Structures are given as structure tokens and as C-alpha cells.
């Protein structure tokens, strides 16, 4: 049974429809990325899931309960886009406060401070924390009590690349322990490897909802090859393979996904004259643009 079940949900603000017939499930242990342009409807969906905003039509089921009910809230962890804590409290005091609210042990809160890399600053006031440190407190607050559903709105904004990596390690642990995770983000490259499914919203409509591999198959965008040879052989390689020279040692080729093996064979048939080959499938950014544009074209 899905941890989160969104069925044919519509949201209207007066005559303005901001979410149009969206259906989306998140299974236990699954990490789903919710992507979309500014104003696509991500936060509106999150607010409806949390019971902070009423639904105009359709239904949302959170672990068998209606959104916003005590039973749903008890099992849900939420990290808002702009996280705010009490500046006069220390990190430890703030997290202990959340632990009491969630009926979780203070020891679990202390362990989490360590896990999110804040043990050294745990007894400093939060007003002295950097944005990234506050975000870490926010993540610790979500993980506390191992919620069955975790909702993270733009969770990595303000984090440096190493912290982002550590952040996704913790999200992965959460999912490995059975939590369903839904996170919204604009940072596409980091989501490629760190989520199980991608849901793309465009103007309030869900225009894609699948694993990265399946989205690649559906979009069938060209695959890029970068072939490197030496200065004196690149011209001959270019003549045999075609493609576009990018510098005096390499060229770029594109092909449809079903021609990939054929192109690779042609490259390897050239033998040791080829020094290196990079094969790059469509990135999430390219897929995102593709699916968002498909939606624009049908309007
Ligand atoms: N209370 C409201 N009244 C009227 N329109 C609203 C209200 N709340 C949101 N909207 C509109 O709904 C649309 C979706 O907004 P939402 O905040 O869900 O987008 P988002 O995908 O989260 O964008 P961002 O990436 O910028 O955070 C926007 O056009 C916004 O102006």
C-alpha cells in the first residue's frame, strides 16, 4: 500500500487553477523527486499533503489517514523551504524540544546531531549558525522518530556540495529504513543518482512520473559520444565517424539510443588510434526540458 496516495487532485484559488488533476503515489522506501518551474505547483501539493491547504477536488491519503489529521501528522516529517528555528536556543535544546513533541528519546536527538555533523556546535545558539547548519538541524528534525513519510521542500538550498552529498546519504538511510520520501528541488544534477523516481510538474499538471531510465526510454533523446584521438589522427577519425570537432584532439557524435551499440562498434573498430570515449545519455536537465516543453506544445 502506498504511504502517500494523491488521486486526481485539483486546487483552485478562485478561478485560477494551480494544480490540475494530479495523481501520484509514493511507496514505502521510495524517494520521489518533485520537479517543476517556479510556480508549477510543488509547494501547493506539499501543503495539501500536510493538510495546510484544503483540496478543491480529488483525494489525498497519508498512511491511511486524511491529510492534517493527528494520525497523519504523527507519522510525517516535514522540512519547509525556508526553515526557521528559535535563535536563542542551542541546536541541542531545539532538537530536544522536537524530540519531546515527537515522544522520542533525547539520546536519539543527540545521536542525530552527531549524524548530521553538528555535534561540535550542538551547544551554540542557533542564531550563530550558518544557513547550511540550520538546514542540518531541519533535516535532523525530519529524521527524528523515523517518520513513515518525509516531505522535503527544496532541502539542499544553502548547502555546499559536500553537505549536499551527506544530506542525500541521510535521506537514503531514511528510505532504506522504510520511509517514503518526497522532495522538491531545482538542483537537477544531484537528483539523478539520489532518487528512485522523478515526477515533473508543469503549470499544475503532472507531465512525467517514472524512473530516470524509463523517462530516458520514453523521451528517446540523443546519446552523446566524445571521441578522443591524437592531434595527427583526429582528422582521419573525423572522416570515418563523422560528427563535430570540438578541439584538436576530440570530436562529438550524437545518435538515437537504439543506435548506441552500432556507433560504439564503429568507434572500437578504429583500434588504438582512439585514445578515449565518453558516452553520455540524456541528463535529467535535458529530460526535464523535454517533458516541460511537451506540455507547452500541447497547450
Ligand atoms: N494562496 C494563493 N492564492 C492564489 N494563488 C496562489 C496561492 N498559493 C499559490 N498560488 C499560485 O499557485 C501557483 C503554484 O505555486 P507554488 O508555490 O505551488 O509553486 P512552486 O512549484 O512551489 O514554485 P517555486 O519553485 O517557486 O517554489 C503559483 O502561480 C502561485 O502564484
In brief:
The chain has 299 residues and is an alpha/beta fold.
Question: What can you see in these coordinates?
Answer:
The chain has 299 residues and is α/β, with parallel strands linked by helices. The protein has two domains: 4-217, P-loop containing nucleotide triphosphate hydrolases (Rossmann fold, 3-Layer(aba) Sandwich); 222-281, Alpha-Beta Plaits. Helices cover 37% and strands 26% of the residues. It is built from eleven helices and 13 strands. The strands form three sheets. The chain has a six-stranded mixed β-sheet with strand order 5-6-7-3-8-9, with helices on both faces. Strands 11-12-10-13 form a four-stranded antiparallel β-sheet, with helices on one face. A three-stranded antiparallel β-sheet has the order 2-1-4, with helices on one face. α6 links the parallel β6 (149-153) and β7. The protein is globular and about 70 Å long. The two termini are 34 Å apart. The relative contact order is 0.13. The mean pLDDT is 91. The site of adenosine-5'-triphosphate (ATP) has 11 residues, from β2 and α1.
Amino acid at each position: 500500500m502506498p504511504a502517500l496516495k494523491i488521486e486526481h487532485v485539483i486546487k483552485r484559488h478562485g478561478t485560477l487553477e494551480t494544480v490540475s488533476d494530479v495523481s501520484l503515489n509514493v511507496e514505502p522506501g521510495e524517494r520521489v523527486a518533485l520537479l517543476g518551474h517556479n510556480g508549477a505547483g510543488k509547494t501547493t501539493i506539499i501543503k495539501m499533503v500536510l493538510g495546510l491547504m484544503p483540496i478543491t477536488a480529488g483525494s489525498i491519503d497519508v498512511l491511511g489517514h486524511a491529510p492534517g489529521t493527528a494520525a497523519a501528522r504523527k507519522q510525517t516529517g516535514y522540512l519547509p523551504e525556508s526553515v526557521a528555528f528559535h535563535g536563542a536556543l542551542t541546536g541541542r535544546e531545539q532538537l530536544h524540544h522536537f524530540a519531546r513533541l515527537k515522544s522520542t528519546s533525547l539520546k536519539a536527538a543527540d545521536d542525530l546531531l552527531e549524524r548530521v555533523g553538528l555535534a561540535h556546535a550542538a551547544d551554540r545558539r542557533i542564531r550563530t549558525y550558518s544557513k547550511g547548519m540550520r538546514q542540518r538541524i531541519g533535516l535532523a528534525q525530519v529524521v527524528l522518530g523515523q517518520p513513515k513519510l518525509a516531505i522535503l521542500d527544496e532541502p539542499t538550498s544553502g548547502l555546499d556540495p559536500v553537505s549536499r552529498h551527506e544530506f542525500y546519504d541521510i535521506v537514503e538511510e531514511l528510505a532504506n529504513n522504510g520511509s517514503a520520501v518526497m522532495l522538491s528541488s531545482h538542483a537537477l544534477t544531484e537528483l539523478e543518482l539520489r532518487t528512485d523516481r522523478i515526477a515533473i510538474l508543469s503549470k499544475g499538471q503532472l507531465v512525467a512520473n517514472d524512473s530516470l531510465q524509463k523517462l530516458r526510454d520514453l523521451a528517446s533523446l540523443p546519446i552523446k559520444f566524445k571521441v578522443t584521438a591524437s592531434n595527427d589522427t583526429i582528422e582521419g577519425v573525423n572522416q570515418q565517424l563523422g560528427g563535430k570537432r570540438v578541439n584538436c584532439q576530440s570530436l562529438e557524435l550524437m545518435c538515437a539510443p537504439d543506435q548506441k551499440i552500432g556507433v560504439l562498434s564503429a568507434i572500437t573498430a578504429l583500434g588504438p588510434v582512439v585514445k578515449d570515449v565518453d558516452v553520455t545519455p540524456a541528463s535529467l536537465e535535458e529530460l526535464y526540458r523535454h517533458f516541460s516543453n511537451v506540455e507547452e506544445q500541447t497547450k
